Amino acid sequence: MTMRQHLLEIDDLKVNFKTYGGEVQAVRGVSFHVDKGETVAIVGESGCGKSVTAQAIMGLIPNPPGRIVGGKVVFEGKEITHLPKKELLGIRGTQIGMVFQDPMTALNPTMKVGAQIVEGFVRSQKVTREEARKRAIEMLGLVGIPDPEKRIDQYPHQFSGGMRQRVVIAIALACQPKLVIADEPTTALDVTIQAQILDLLKRLQEEQELSVVIITHDLGVVAEVAHRMVVMYAGMVVETGTVEDVFANPRHPYTWGLMRSLPRLDEGEKQRLIPIEGSPPDLFQPPKGCPFAARCDFAMEICDQQMPVTSEFAEGHQAACWLHDPRAPRIEELVAAGRQGV
Amino acid sequence: MSNYLVKRVLMMIVTLWIIVTLTFSLMHAIPGNPFASESDQLPEQILNNLRAKYNLDQPLPVQYVLYLKNLLMFDLGPSIKSDSRGVNDMISDGFGASAWLGAQAISIALVFGILFGIIAALNRNKWLDYVAMALAVMGVAIPSFIMAPLLINYLAIKVTIFPVATWGTWMHTVLPSLALAFGPVAVITRYMRASMIEVMNQNYIRTAEAKGIPMWIIVIRHGIRNAILPVVTFLGPLIASLITGTFVVEKIFAIPGIGKYFVDGIFNRDYPVILGTTIFYSAILIVTIFLIDIAYTLIDPRIKLTNKER
Fold this sequence. Notes:
The complex is a heterodimer of chains A (342) and B (310). With 342 residues, chain A is α/β, with parallel strands linked by helices. Chain A is 33% helix and 22% strand. In chain A, a hairpin with a 2-residue loop joins strand 1 (8-19) and strand 2 (22-34). With 310 residues, chain B is mainly alpha-helical. In chain B, 34% of the residues are buried. The chains are: A alpha/beta (342), B mainly alpha (310). The interface between A and B is medium-sized, with 32 and 20 residues.
């Protein structure tokens, strides 16, 4: 069997942060891959390590206190985990672009928007002033900002939140990167603007055959834009698969919990949202067994003792849970019960 | 904008008038008078003539109006103690040297203060930061009248690079400028470090990093302009006090600046000199603050000069 080369492959990535309280294991062996032209969503609650994973791909982990202690990031067949600064600069922006969460603070308030968009482009392409200006206008038009000739000479405070996020996207795309990492690109925006930004991302992804890693805690966003999803919990991947497979047949109790905590429009008027009780484990001293065991309704004795092995269901649909071990009790009813919201 | 400028200039004139009035009343509230030290030796008749010459025999409100009249024609009056020279002459003779020294000191303070501040901020909690901060504490703690003799001792006597004192060539200006700059370097270093640390933690710095821009370009292009506002604020009073001369440093280096007139004027109760130098200093301070406000708007496009309350 010949393995197709993935555009981005992350293999057993581990990232620690030193703090005064000890060393936090923020990412504890994350593996996933992104193919050309595909959108992969990383889902999980705050502190599960999704943003740190994104920063690790870009080599943007602040060191100190952060440090990649294991695993590797492979981009286009080349390991970029511990590249020297200079080579890393050649990848950032030009090969991998990044869209940040908060558009209100992600732009330099004292620099004209056009200059910010083409800053990386000018550096990598060595273009003239006019070419750079043309590029800035083109990029602003591409992300749907009206009147781009006038707008490039304005400052960020003259833009609304949604418009600023479009600018941030334009910055990420200015050098035509192959991969864009969007770290909660819609979290700071209000709902109507969220929809516009997601549409924009989706359109650009299709038009430019981009690969996109979108980090979010919003399953609605996942359903809207992603092809595949990676569910993270406490620094680990608990379930991964195509969006269709995971939404239709979630296999990990944490994913069930996420699904149950979503409001549904098709189930009558009054319904309670069911939260996942408890809170994630302490990552200073993570449990030796399944990190979700303490909050899991179906936890067995082994769950506390040993890390679960990963089982595969459909092509690429995997979950790390002991319930899927052949020795585990039959769980069909449990699963059904879980999905119906007990 | 032009509406704002007109209002602003009017405000500046009003401010200056208030300062003149306050100084005038405070000055006459100090016990003594310009001829107090001679009053034992001189006959009463001569003293009366002297008072009449300088209008000191008139009631205070009359003196005040007379002074304002002259001031409107930019005449700061005669100096009572050195009779041949007016206050205008004193200032125009001494201001060149003082302003030159001040300008050099400010340039040194800005360049090194900003540089040290950035280095300290980028190496936060490493030895370079500690060295810069130790120097800054010393700069604030050691007064210029200690720095000046130290500089003279090491750079003019032990190693004879610069002249010890007096005024003449550019070489004469180096040591006094350094002595004047030492304190401000320290203050600017501290301001710059604090605000640079804050700026480098901002999200837009991360955005720039994600574009693949090298750190030193990020610092220059994105860091400095955003971090420099506190330094600019400090610059207003600094410029005013440095270019109008400093008594101590000018005294130590025997520089014919205007610093000494501020002090001598008070000791001699030389009313026109006290008023003249105060007005001169105030005018420069008011104008510098105005220029600084304009500089704000150039540095940060979010700041606008306007009368509107928002």
